[in-house]
Write the structure tokens for this entry.
Amino acid sequence: MVSTAKRTLEMRLLLGPDDAVTVAGRFGYRSDRPYEVEVAFLSRGRTVSTWRFARDLLLEGLSGEVGEGDVRVWSFRRPGDVRRVHMELSTGDSVCELSVRASELTAWLEQTAAIVPPGREDRFLDMDTHLARLLAGKC
């Protein structure tokens, strides 16, 4: 049986130092894919982009800067504001930076940890199934 944790969080798409647009990020986690999270960015109720990356990036990004390449994550707090977690997502052509309240992200990550404790992902991974999908070209 696959267990899931899903939550839609309000995020800010950062356009400049003091300019941001609110977007919805639907965060998803599945026990049969224990190392990854999925974030679908929504506009007017439709998914406009979906990113998959390591759950560890979010966990480690709560307390420090982590990531190289396409996904970077770090915690940040402006004086007088709540702590936020920033995510920088980049492709070959563009870079975007988003932020989410650290408390909301932490609550969702706690849900994922209740499903698959961090550091125990290998016990939930069905390597034979994933290898068969890879060899069949279905990944």
In short: The longest strand covers residues 4-16. The mean pLDDT is 91. The longest helix spans residues 102-115.
